[in-house]
């Protein structure tokens, strides 16, 4: 006789192991016995009816829970869905119509499916370049972003949500999956959930919810304009990246690539330019010029000023006032 444990019964019936144990202790399950300290029961034990359901609804609930007593009308309505569930080709056709990028990983981490939206998002011409050839679990780039703890949870059959995932598009280029990047950077929310078959973890389905993509120079210009207009405010990388509609994780790198300097260096350059203007006014002391720019004349910007101009503020003032 086949048997199942409390954990297996809970998974099959869609309730918690604690609730199964409570039902056993209430004496509402036949054929239950212990092996050592573990409760077990026959493999074909039906899900018990929850006593917490009102008497009025008990018969309806029982009909739903017992497959042999399915209401005829419900059985008729579910027939097309039964056909889909047992036809892998129909399943894949449905996935391909989804506008949301979908990727499916086997229990060992290997990609076994990517829908059309996923391929188009990354400009992948042939799914065979990805399917069967990439393993999320063994990828050091994704592992660094996701973290070992969440990676283990994903492939232990848990549902995991990852917010603000910075898609590593350059990695696809490096692996030869695509020839060039369709976008510079993208931020996504990931929802990964497991698929089980008779108590066995089969695969993980990953849904990609794209929050924003960074295409090129327009975002750089928006960030530069924002810093030029808000130069008197404290430097805030996250706020600047939000204005550009790009994740801060990516933006520092791509900004330097296009502008030739980091975000902070660009901001410092604007600030020092304003200091230079103020120092040319004979009506302001050096301390007042710095104060008008929102910084301390003895703080970090004194050092930045020397680095950028090659002069102290007093040397700059003497040279330019003359």
Q: Which SSEs are present, and which pair or pack?
A:
Elements: E1 3-5, H1 6-13, H2 17-25, E2 33-35, E3 38-42, H3 55-65, H4 72-85, H5 88-97, E4 102-106, E5 111-114, H6 116-121, H7 140-146, H8 148-154, E6 160-166, H9 169-174, E7 185-197, E8 200-214, H10 217-229, H11 237-243, H12 248-259, H13 263-279, H14 286-292, H15 300-309, H16 313-321
Antiparallel strand pairs: 1-3, 2-3, 4-5, 4-8, 6-7, 7-8
From the structure above, extract its key features.
Beta-Lactamase, Arc Repressor Mutant, subunit A, 16 helices, 48% helix, 322 residues, alpha+beta, three-stranded antiparallel β-sheet
Structural description of this entry:
By secondary structure, the chain is of the alpha+beta class. The protein has helices at 6-13, 17-25, 55-65, 72-85, 88-97, 116-121, 140-146, 148-154, 169-174, 217-229, 237-243, 248-259, 263-279, 286-292, 300-309, 313-321, and strands spanning 3-5, 33-35, 38-42, 102-106, 111-114, 160-166, 185-197, 200-214. The protein folds into three domains: 3-69, Arc Repressor Mutant, subunit A, CATH 1.10.10; 100-214, 2-Layer Sandwich (Beta-Lactamase), CATH 3.30.450; 217-321, Arc Repressor Mutant, subunit A, CATH 1.10.10. 48% of the residues lie in helices and 17% in strands. It has a five-stranded antiparallel β-sheet. Strands 1-3-2 form a three-stranded antiparallel β-sheet. Strand 7 (185-197) and strand 8 (200-214) form a beta hairpin. The longest helix is centred in the C-terminal third of the chain and has 17 residues, at 263-279. The termini are far apart.
């Amino acid at each position: 006789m086949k048997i199942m444990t409390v954990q297996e019964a809970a998974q099959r019936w869609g309730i918690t192991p604690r609730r199964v144990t409570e039902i056993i202790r209430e004496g509402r399950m036949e054929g239950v016995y212990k092996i050592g300290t573990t409760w077990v029961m026959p493999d074909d034990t039906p899900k018990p009816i929850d006593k917490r359901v009102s008497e009025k609804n008990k018969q309806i609930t029982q009909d739903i829970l017992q497959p042999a007593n399915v209401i005829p009308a419900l059985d008729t309505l579910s027939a097309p869905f039964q056909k889909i569930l047992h036809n892998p080709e129909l399943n894949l056709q449905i996935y391909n119509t989804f506008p949301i990028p979908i990727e499916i990983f086997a229990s060992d981490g290997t990609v076994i499916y990517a829908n059309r939206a996923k391929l188009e998002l990354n400009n992948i011409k042939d799914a065979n370049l990805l399917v069967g050839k990439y393993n999320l679990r063994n990828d050091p780039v994704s592992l660094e972003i996701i973290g070992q703890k969440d990676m283990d949870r994903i492939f232990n059959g848990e549902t995991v949500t990852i917010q603000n995932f910075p898609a590593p598009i350059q990695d696809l280029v490096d692996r030869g999956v695509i020839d060039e990047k369709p976008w510079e950077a993208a931020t996504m929310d990931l929802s990964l959930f497991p698929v089980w078959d008779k108590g066995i973890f089969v695969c993980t389905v990953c849904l990609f919810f794209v929050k924003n993509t960074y295409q090129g120079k327009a975002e750089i210009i928006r960030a530069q304009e924002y810093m030029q207009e808000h130069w008197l405010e404290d430097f805030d990388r996250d706020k600047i990246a939000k204005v550009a509609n790009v994740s801060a994780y990516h933006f520092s790198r791509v900004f330097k690539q296009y502008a030739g300097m980091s975000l902070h260096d660009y901001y410092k350059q604007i600030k020092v330019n304003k200091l230079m203007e103020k120092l040319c006014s004979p009506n302001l002391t050096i301390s007042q010029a710095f104060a008008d720019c929102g910084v301390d004349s003895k703080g970090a910007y004194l050092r930045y000023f020397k680095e950028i101009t090659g002069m102290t503020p007093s040397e700059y003032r003497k040279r330019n006032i003359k």
